[in-house]
Amino acid sequence: MKPFYITTPIYYINAAPHIGHAYTTIAADVLARTLRLQGRPVHLLTGTDEHGLKIEKAASAAKLSPREYADGVSAKFRELWKALDVLPDDFIRTTEPRHEETVRRAFAAMIESGDIYKGRYSGFYCVSDETFWTEKETLSGPGGGKLCPNPDCKRPLERVEEESYFFRLSTYGGKLLSHYESHPEFLAPSSRSSEMKNFVKAGLQDISVSRTKVRWGLPVPGDEAHTVYVWFDALLNYLAAAESKDASLWPPDVHVVGKEIYRFHAVVWPAMLMALGRELPGKVFAHGWWTVEGEKMSKSKGNFVDPLAVTGEFGVDAFRFFLFREMPFGQDGDFSLASMKRRYNADLANDLGNLVNRGCDMAARYLGGAIPEALPDGPLLDRAKFMAAGAAASAAIERLEFGAALHDLWTAIGGLNGWLNEKAPWTVAKTDPPKAAAVISELLWALRAIGCWIAPFMPGTSARIHERIGVPKAPWPRTPDEARPVSAGAVKKGEPLFPRKA
Ligand code: MSP
Fold this sequence. Notes:
The chain is an alpha/beta fold. Helix content is 47%, strand content 16%. It is elongated. Bound molecules: 5'-O-[(L-methionyl)-sulphamoyl]adenosine.
């Protein structure tokens, strides 16, 4: 069976990683974990994007060679994924021979087929975004200068006048539109698809794919005065990684990217693949952006939030949870320590943490700490409805609707809390101990399922819940039968999963 191939963008290494970076890759990891729990083979790719002027400048500011600089920052990203419990199957660097070889071959093949030709570029270039702009697209700045039209950038642009290679993007408009038409799932979420379609319908220009002024890059095959434009280089990482591991991985099932790089992934990249005669990815999904305390994160404001600072205070799982609970995937949202704390206390300490604690404490007290083999006669809980929440969450994750998945799960957790209060086994125990025991057994059964369902978002907490209720390893239950307690394990009392934050 072909592994489900998921990619994240490869990260620019000109700055330290922040929560926005963590977002894309954790999202991909949540999807990967969900599919793995269902027993499906998955291949998750991430990596670092190491060529281009931006990196050249960052390296020289750090008084290092670009390669030394790249080695250091790339390693930081790898460590970050480990610290955030992200489990990539492959990590590609654009300075690796396997990547460089693919780029060289692709460039040469496209010169050969006429999809790339030599011309003269005259226009504007944004070093920060590594993006070319025509004069018409730019904004006017002070003193007649031109500014980057990306609303999140607006930095001064460089005027570029040079010989350049061009990719014949203009010839792919019709083919792209018919692909969008025949594959309605390709552009996602659907709210972003019309923007891409309109952009293509307005008419595509050929794009410059080489630079003569950038030395830190791959030489154009046969013409070393030019280096390959960093985006043309970077996009090919998805193909290079697959070809070097297992050719049957191709095509990717989903590229998860941020909205600001959607055009590269939804227009330029599929056109490049068409030129190369390769199959297109199944889906290109654009997520929204995080601001911090209402502001865009930027060097000038110095307000980058280090994910490790957040996990140091709240734990990795709480951070992973917050990212997807707080804003729907695909929309923009705001990060603040106050909202993080609010969610932590309400959803994790109260709703989930207390429920687990109450279940384990009562099991210790009324069941002698043993999780019963069989479910009580019942049902005491609407089991079908409860199980439907797990199925709905898993289906939502497959649609990359992570917020909806957590909404479903927390509705089920809220329902369990309400049900428990209504059944009040601590009171019933005084008059009808078997009935109280049955309610507690049912609760443990439900906690086992909850422990499974939260695993993609909160792998550590999932394991701790299962440990506490004496089910050390559990598969993803899809039916009540699969969620049956496997053995009479021992339930443990223990520390709260999420101690309240003052
Ligand atoms: N190197 C390119 C991608 C090349 S892929 C062939 C790049 N790198 S990046 O480091 O700038 O961005 C990596 C990811 O981080 C993108 O998906 C981007 O959307 C995401 N984020 C960076 N800042 C972000 C926020 N403030 N909020 C949410 N995600 C953001 O682009």
